[in-house]
Amino acid sequence: MVVLRDVLAAIGRDPVANPLVPFGDLTGLHYGRFVILDGAVDPGTGRTVASSLVFNCCVDGPADQFLQALMARAGSGLWAVFQHCSGAPAPGEHGELLAWLRRHRIPTQTFYVNTLGRTVFQILKEAQLRERIEGFLDRKAGSTTTATSPSTVRKAIQQFVRGTNDLAWAMRPEPPLPWAWRLRDGLHRIGGLAVGLLVGLLALPFVPLFLVVLRRSEINAPHPRQDPNFRLSQFNRRQLSQDEDFFIQNQFSVLGFIKPGLFRYATLRAILVVADFVVHHFFREGDLGTVPLLNLHGVDTIHFANWIVVDQGQRVLFLSNYDFNLEDYMNDFINKVAWGLNLIFGHGVNYPRTDWMVFGGARDEQVYKAVLRKYQIRTQVWFCAYPDFSAITIQKNAQLRAGLFAELDSAAERDWLALL
Amino acid sequence: MSPPEPAMKLELFDIQGIVGRGYGKHSSAAYLLLEVEAPALARRWLAEKVERVHTCEQTPDPDVPCFNIAFTHAGLEALGLDAEALNTFPSELKEGMTEPQRSRALGDESGAADPESSPRHWDWGGTAAGQRPVHLMLMVFAPSEADLATTIAELSVLLRPGGLTLVRRLHTALLADREGGVREHFGFRDAISQPGIAGLHRTTSGQPLVPAGEFILGYENAYGLLTECPRVHHSLDPDRLLPPAEFGTHDLGRNGSYLVVRQLGQRVRAFWQFLDAVSRDPDGVANPQRRVALAARMVGRWPSGAPLVESPIEDDPTRATDNSFGFHQSDPQGLRCPLGAHIRRSNPRDSLDPAPGTAASLAVNATHRLLRRGRTYGPPLSTTFDPDEILRADEGDERGIHFICVNANITRQFEFVQRSWINNSQFDGLLDETDPLLGTRRLPTGRTTDTFSVPGCPVRQRISGLPTFVVVRGGAYFFLPSISAIRYLASLNS
User: Fold this and answer.
1) B360 vs A contacts (CB less than 8 Å)
2) Is A414 near chain B, with CB under 8 Å?
3) A110 touches A306 (CB < 8 A)
C-alpha cells in the first residue's frame, strides 16, 4: 500500500502529463481519479471491510471504447498501479489487464452530468472561441463607441470568426446527439415513468408502514449533535485542503457506512435508482434540483457526480467535481438543496438527524459541514480536462457559440453581446 | 423581511463595545499588539483592566478614552487556557490566518513567484523567522492624539511589570472629508454600508437587520441556529464565572465574537496612475472625467459615496450615504454598476442565487455579512483627495487601512467573502478578473486575473493589466471575548 501511495502520488503531482497515466493525452476524458478506500470496521455490524482502490473516469461515448484507448496509451502505467491490487494479473499482456479491469468494473448507482451530451472537445474549443472573440473585441475597443449598433458589433465578430481559419468549426452549431441515442433515451424516459407509476401505485398501501418505520429509525439513530467534540471539528481539514483551491474547480470523495439494517439499505438503493432516473431525464441542463413548481432552486456548480455503493453494500462512495471551494459548495447545498442531500445521505451513519427524510439534516449547518469533512477522504489523483472553467462559464461559452450565427432579433442580439 | 428580535435579549453589559460601534466620535485610535511573556503577571494585569473594558451597554463619551481587547489562539494558550478548551475553538482560529493552505485560499500566497502579500513578508503576524508572536490586541480610542498618548502611556506603564511586551503599535488616522464622512486613501467615502444587528441597532441604513448570532456568539444566527461556542469543562470554572452550556461545560464564547484583522497597504498613486493611463483620450490627453468615472466603476460608488446603481452618469453628493438599493431589479447586467465592482462583490445584496432580486437571495447574502470596524492609517496623498494632486504627489509613506471585521463564523463570513466573492475570478459569470481594488492578479496555477470589465452597450469594455493596488502587510484572527470570559481568563491559574 505504501508503494501504491507513492505511485499514485507521482501521478497526482502531474495528472496531465505524468509518464505513467498521462490523463491529458486521453481524448474524451472529462475527469479521472484514483482514490484509496481504507479498510474499516462497520460500526453497525462489526464487520471489517477491506481496503480497495477506486479508479473513476467520466468520459464521452462508450466506456469500453475508452478503456481500450486508455490501455493502448497507458497500459504499463496502469500495471504500475494495479499490480498492488490482490488478484491483479501478473505483468504481461495488456489484454489480460484489460479483461481484469472489465471484470472489476462496478456500476454507478446515480450518475449526474451537468449537461448531457456536451463533450470535452466542445467545452475546450468553445472556451477557445470565447477567448479569441474577447481578444478581438479588446483590439477593436478603440473603434467601438456607444453609438455603434449591437448588430454592427455582432457582424464584425462574425466576420472575424469567418476570417479565422482555425475557428471555421464555429460557423456551424454543435450537432445534436445521434437520433438512435435520442430514441432510446426517449423510450427509457417513457418506460421509466410508466414503471415508476406502477411501482408507486403498488407501494401506496405500504406508505403508512414505511413512514412509521422511518420515523422510528430517525428518532432512535444516534446523531452527531449528541457528540460534543464532533460539532466543533473540521476533521482532517489541513490534510484534505492541501489538494484544494488551486483551480476554479475542486473535487471531493466522501466515503461512509450506511446505517445498519435492511430498511435503510433498501430505501437508499431505491432512492439511488430513482435519483439516477430523475437527474438523467430532468436535471440534465445544468441545474441540479430546480423544480419551479415547488419553488425549489437548484445548484449550478456541479459538473459530474457519482454515487456508488461499495463494499458489498456496506459503504457508499460519493465523488463530486464542483466549482469554487468547499465552503461555497456546502453553503450552496445547505441553502438550496438540503432536501436532496437528506434524501440520499440521510441514510449514512452520523449524518445530522433528518425529519421525514427531507427536513432537518443538512440544515444543521455546522454539524453538516463537520460531517462532510469527517467522511471526506483524500483523492490521490484528480484530473480535470478544464479545471479553469466553472459550469456557468462553460454554459455561457456554449450560448455564445450557439448564437454566433443564429438568427437573432435585436433584443436577443443585445443579450448575446452581454455574454461577453 | 427583517428577522425577528432575538428570542433572548442581548446581554449588552457583557459584550465588548466594538461589536456595537466603531467609536467614530473618538477621532484618535491605536491598536497595540502584545506578547505575553509572564502569564501570571499578564493575568493580573488583565484582572485590573477588565472592569474598564468598554461594553455595548455604555454610551461612549467622546471626551473619555476607552478600550477593547482581543486574543489570538496563541495568546489564549500563553495565558494558560486549558488544552481541551483551546481545542474547542474553530479551526481557523486554531490554525491562524497564515496556515499555508489558508493563505493560498485567501489569495495571500497567489500564483506569483514571490507574492508581495505573502505572510513571509508581513510586518507582523507573519511567518518570517524571528517575528514576535501576537497574543493580544488592545484597541484604544481617544478624543485626541494627546489623550491617546496619555491613555496608552497609562495602560503601558504596567505592561512590562504586567508580563506583556509591545510587539507593534498600529497607528491610525481617520480621513475626514469636508462633507463629514470618512474616506479611504483612494479617495472614496467609506463605511457607508454596515449590517445592522437585530436587537442592538435600530437604524438599518436601508437594509434588513441581520440576526445577532451572525456577529455575537450565543444568539440565533441567520440559519436560526447557535454558532458553536468555545467552552471549558465545568470543573475548570469552579467560581462559575461563565454561563453553563451543554455536556457539562461552561460557555466561553457567549457574548463574544471573532475579529479578523488585516493591515492592507494601499498604492494610492499607482491606482490613479493606472486609471489615468487607461482613461486618456485617443490623442493621449488626460481625461479626468473619464478617469474618475472608471474609478467609480471599480468601486461601485462615486468618491462622494453615491451608489452607481442610483447615479450611473455622474457623482451626486446628495446620495452620498444612500444604501437602500438592490442590484438585480435596476441593474441585472451591471450596465450601471459593473458586476465586478468592489461593492457588488463584497456585498452582492440581491444579485446572486438562489433567485436574484428576491428575499431568498437576500437571506443567503445575510449569511455572509461583515461588521467592519477598521480605520485608515498613514497621511493622505492629498487632503482633498483630488486625483490630479495625488498624481503629482510622491507615494512616500506607507498608508492604507487596518481592516478589522467582527463575525461569529470566520469561515462562513470573512473567508467566504474573501475567497468566493473578492478573489473569485469567475464571480457572477465573469471571467479572469478579481476585485479591481483588492483582488489578486494571479491564480495559484499562474493564470492571470488582471482584467476588469465594464458592461456596456453595444458591448463591454475590458481593461486589462491591472496592477496590484492593495498589499497585505500583516494580519491575524482574534477571539473577542465577553467581559465575563475576560474575567475568566484573568482568573486562570496554571
Assistant:
1) 297
2) yes
3) yes
d(CA A118, CA A236): 35
Q: Are A263 and A357 in contact (CB under 8 A)?
A: no
Domains of chain B, by residue range, sit at 12-261+476-491, 265-372+419-474
Which residues in chain B have their CB less than 8 angstroms from residue A142's CB? Answer: 282
Query: Is the predicted pLDDT of residue A339 greater than 80, yes or no?
Result: yes
Cα separation, A162 vs A156, in Å, equals: 10
Cβ within 8 Å, pair B426-A389:
yes
Nearest CA to A80 out of A28, A30, A9 is that of A9
For chain A, the domains span 2-106, 120-176+390-417
Nine cell digits for residue A8: 499514485
Task: Taking residues B383-397, report their average pLDDT.
Answer: 92
What's the CA gap between B108 and B106, in Å, rounded? 6
Residues in CB range of B256: below 8 A, 6 or more apart? B15, B16, B216, B217, B218, B229, B479, B480, B481, B482, B485
ipTM value: 0.95
Do the beta carbons of residue A384 and residue A243 sit within 8 Å?
no
- In total, chain B counts a number of residues equal to 494
Report the alpha-carbon distance of residue B89 to residue B95 in Å, rounded: 10
Taking alpha carbons only, the member of B109, B20, B116, B114 closest to residue B68 is B20
Of B91, B364, B445, the CB nearest to A234: B91
Q: Do A228 and B249 touch (CB under 8 A)?
A: yes
* pLDDT band, very low/low/confident/very high, at A1 (cuts 50, 70, 90): confident
Provide the Cα torsion B465, B469, B472, B478; round to 10°.
-120
- A336 CB neighbours in chain B (<8 A) are 353-354
| Amino acid in the structure at residue B42 | A
Identify the pLDDT of residue B210. Answer: 94
- Report residue B292 as a C-alpha cell: 474618475
User: B87, B335, B431: best mutation site toward chain A, by most A Cβ within 10 Å?
Assistant: B431
Burial class of B350 by CB neighbour count within 10 A (0 to 12, 13 to 18, 19+): buried
